[in-house]
proline--tRNA ligase
Amino acid sequence: MGSLKLPTSAFSSIIPIRSFFHRHQHRHLCLSLKPSSASTPKTSIPPSPKEKSVSNNDQKSKPEGTITPRSQDFNAWYLDVIRHAELADYGPVRGTMVIRPYAYAIWEAIQDYLNVKFKETGHSNMYFPQLIPYSFIEKEASHVEGFSPELAVVTIGGGKELEEKLVVRPTSETIVNHMFTQWIDSYRDLPLMVNQWVNVTRWEMRTKPFLRTLEFLWQEGHTAHATPEEAEKEALQMIDVYVKFAHEQAAVPVIVGRKSKVETFAGATRTYTIEAMMGDKKALQAGTSHNLGQNFSIAFGTKFTDESGQKQHVWQTSWAISTRFVGGIIMTHGDDAGLMLPPKLAPIQVVIVPIWKKSEEKANVLEAAVSVEKVLKASGIKVKLDDSDQRTPGWKFNFWEMKGVPIRIEIGPRDVSSGTLVVSRRDVPGKQGKVFGISMEPSILESYVKDKLDEIQSSLLEKAESFRDSNIVDVNSYDELKVAISQGKWARGPWSASETEELKVKEETGATIRCFPFEQPQGAKTCLMTGNPAEEVAIFAKSY
Amino acid sequence: MGSLKLPTSAFSSIIPIRSFFHRHQHRHLCLSLKPSSASTPKTSIPPSPKEKSVSNNDQKSKPEGTITPRSQDFNAWYLDVIRHAELADYGPVRGTMVIRPYAYAIWEAIQDYLNVKFKETGHSNMYFPQLIPYSFIEKEASHVEGFSPELAVVTIGGGKELEEKLVVRPTSETIVNHMFTQWIDSYRDLPLMVNQWVNVTRWEMRTKPFLRTLEFLWQEGHTAHATPEEAEKEALQMIDVYVKFAHEQAAVPVIVGRKSKVETFAGATRTYTIEAMMGDKKALQAGTSHNLGQNFSIAFGTKFTDESGQKQHVWQTSWAISTRFVGGIIMTHGDDAGLMLPPKLAPIQVVIVPIWKKSEEKANVLEAAVSVEKVLKASGIKVKLDDSDQRTPGWKFNFWEMKGVPIRIEIGPRDVSSGTLVVSRRDVPGKQGKVFGISMEPSILESYVKDKLDEIQSSLLEKAESFRDSNIVDVNSYDELKVAISQGKWARGPWSASETEELKVKEETGATIRCFPFEQPQGAKTCLMTGNPAEEVAIFAKSY
C-alpha cells in the first residue's frame, strides 16, 4: 500500500496550512529558490465565482485573477490550478485536505471504473474498522519500521486514557489478517478476495495537495491464496488493472515494473508499481500491487488446511490506488490555461456557452442551446449549459478552460440561423482547435461530439507518451546517469549493484530506482555502476 | 446528525469483543436475565461455508448450527442472524465492527439509491478531513455538551505529542462551517449544498452491531441558505427523501415527525426524524434531518452579503442516514429462519438451486439452471446459481433462507422434462409460498419473477405496517401510557408538558418521546400528563 510511501524528494516543499489561499505568503515561505512573486508574469484567469462575486452590472470579459505559467514554476502552477479550478483546499489541521466537489467527481469516476473491474476479477467490497490496536502494527517487523514514524495515535476515548493506544489506519494489512485468521479454515475458503474504499491517515511532514496529505482516500484490495503462484498471479493481475485504468481512462501513460528491494512496501516480498512522468518530468508512483508472501500470515497466524490435510500459512497480496492519482492527472495534462481532463474521467465533458449581444437574440440562442444540451444529455454525454447572465462569454471560456472541460460548444445568433454551432477542443489551443459550422442535427452532432471526445482521449495519451519517451535517456555509466538526472530526465540503464550503491545514487543525484520495467531490452547488459553483468535495466528518476 | 445519539435504553446490552463468535460466553456475560443456553430450543440452521467446511464426502441435508428463535430472545436472535448470514463481525477494538461483503452490498444498494436522490435535489458529494481541532468542538455550546463525552482523541502524530489535540470526526458540522466561512461571500454563493459518505467515530459504551458501534459509516449532508425559510424547506425535503427511501426501498414503514427539545440534535434548532418499529416493538431512529438555524454560522462566523448589501449569518441544515439502517432492515423483516431482505436492496434477488439425484440427471439440470440464470441476469435481476457439489439442496435452501434471498428457484429432472420450474417465496414459509410449474420460457419467466419481486416488496411493507399499527396504542392519561409501554407497545397521546415531566416518563417507564408525528389527529387535545390543552400528540416508546 505504498502509494504515498515514497522517500521524500529533496524538491518537495513544505506547504503551510491554507497556503494556497495565500499565494504570496506561500512563495515566500516555501519556495525561496524561486524569483520573487513581484516579478512573476501571470496568465490571466478568472477567480472562482464562489470566491469572488461580481454584481450584475459588473460584467468583465477579462476577469481578474492570475495563474503562474507552468514552465516558470511548476509547483506554483500546480497549486494555482488546484485553487482556481476549485479542486481542493487545505483543512484546518496542517496537511489535511478538503476535496471539493469538482475533484471529488473525478474520484467518483475513478471509483466507478475500478469497482467494475474489481468485481469482474472476483473481489467483494467490505469495511474494516479504522482503529487498530498499536500492538498489531508491531507484529510484522518491517511493517512497524516503515509505518511507526507516521502514525496518528488515539490515546483518549470517551474522556478516558485508553489502556492500549490505537492507531488510526495507515493501511490495513494488520487488521485484515486479524480477521482473515478467523474466517479462513480450509483451502475451500480460498481465495479470499476483498477490497475497501476508505480514508487512511499518515503523519507526513511534507505535504502537497493530492500527492501527499495527512489523510487521503484510496481503495485497498486484500487477498489470501493457497499457493504462492496464485498470489503472484493476483498481484500481477491487479497491477495490470491499474495499467489499463491509467492508459484507457486517465490517459496517463505509465511504466509498469517491479520495485527494488529498497523501495518495496514495508511488509511485502515484492512490490509492483506504475510510474508516470509528470509535466516537470518528475516521476509519480501512481499505484502499487504487493505480493506479501507469507509475511503477514506468519505474523498473524493466518493458516489453512490444504487438500492433503496439512496446515499452511496463506499467501497474500494487497494493492491500492489513491486520490494521489487526481494530482497525477493534473500534472500530466494541465497547461498554462489550467486543468485539462481526459474525457473519460471528466465530470463535465462538454460545456455549452451561448453568445448574444442584443437582448432580442437571447431567446433564440438560449432555445438552441437548451435543445443541444438535451440532445447530448440523451446520448449519455456529461454536458453543462452555462447560461448565466452574470458573466461574459469570454469569462466563461477562460473559466471552463481552467476547469479542463474537454469540449466547448459556442452558439451565437448566426449559428442559430444556419442551424450550426462551433466546437472548440480544450487540448488544441486557439483557432486550430476550433471548428465552425457543425450541424445541430441531433444524429450528426452526437456522433461528431463522441468522435471528438474519443480523439481528445487518444490525443492526450499520445502527447503524454511522446513527452515521456523523449525524456527517458538510456545510460550505460554512472556519469551518463548523473547527466540525465541533472537535466531533469529519467535515466534507464542496466543495474545489478548493491543497495548501498542504490542509496549512494539517491544521495548524490536525488534520483531513486522507480522500477525494473517489465518491458526489458534484449541482449547482454553490464551494470552501469559496477560493470558486472546485469539481468535488467532499471529506471532512475527524481520523484514526488 | 444524531442517528446514533439516542439515549441508551435500559435494555441495551454490553456486547464484549467477538462475542457473537462465542455465543455461550456472550449469553453468560450479557444476558443474565435470559434462561441458560442449555435449555434454549434452537432452530436448525447451517453454519457459513467459510466458517466450517465439510469434505466432499461429508454431505449433510440437515447442517449443524443453530439460531435462537426470534420470539424467545430477540437480542440473541439478532446476533445469531448477523453471524450466520455473514453480515458483520466485531473488530479487535471493543465496539468496532467489520462489515462483511454481504452486508456491505446492502449498504452499497442504499448508497446507490440515495446518491441519485441527493444529486437530483442539487447536492454534490465531496470530502472533509476527519481530524478536527479540539477547539472547534467547543465553539458551539450545546454541540460540545452533546459530543464531548464520546470523542476519540488523537494526541500523538508522527511520534510526537501534538500541541492541539485532534478529534476523530463524530460528525462534521464544525469543520464544514470552518470551510463554508471561506467559501461563502455573497448571496450568490447560496444555497451551498454538499454531502459526504464517510466513517464517523463515537466512543459509545454500549454497542451492538449496526445499531451502535464505535465507528460507523454514514452520509452527512450539509447545506447553507440565505433565509430561514429555505433552510426549513431543505430540512423537510431531506427527511422526505428518507421517508421515501424507507418505504419504497427498504420496505420499512416509518413515522416521520419532529423531535422534542430534549431529543433534538446537539446544535440544532429542530430535528426531524423517521422512527421505525422493530420486530420486538422497540423504536429505531432510522434517519434525521436537522434545521441548524444560525447556531453554527454564529459560532464560526459564516456570513454572506445579502441582496441589500447587509452581512447576515447563513441558515443551515444537516441530515444523515447510517449503516444503522442495515440493522433496522434485519430487525424489521427477519424471522426464525434468518434474514429477510426487501428485493430492492437485496444483493441477491433470486437464487437458483439445481436438484439431481443420479449423476446422469446432473448435466441436463445444470444446463437448464444456467440458461435460467442467463435469462434472469439479462433482464437485470440479481441472480445467483448455487451449483456447488459440496452441499445438498436442503442445506442450500436453509442457507439462502438465512441470507434472506427473496426468491428461490428449484429445478429438478422432472422440471427439465416439462420445461418448468418451482418458485419459492422467502416471505411465505413452507408450501404456501411455493408455486410449481412456472414456465422456463424466457419472457414468461422474466415477467413472473419481476411481478413476484414487486409483490414481495409490497408485502413486506404491508406486513410491517400492520404489525406496527397494531402495536401503537392511543393513550389519554399517564396511566394508560404506562400500561402501553409495559406491554412493550408504543403510546400515542396529546402532550404539552414540561421537559421535567418528559424526563420523568423516561425514568419511570424507560420510554422517550420518539417524535411529534407530522400526521396529527384532528380536534381539541388535552395533555395526557397535565390535563392542559395540547396542540399535538407525541409518540412514546422504548428505543434502541
Q: What stands out?
A: Chain B touches chain A through 66 residues (CB under 8 Å). The CA atoms of residues 350 and 440 of chain B lie 15 Å apart. The two ends of chain B are 16 Å apart (CA to CA). Chain B has a mean pLDDT of 89.
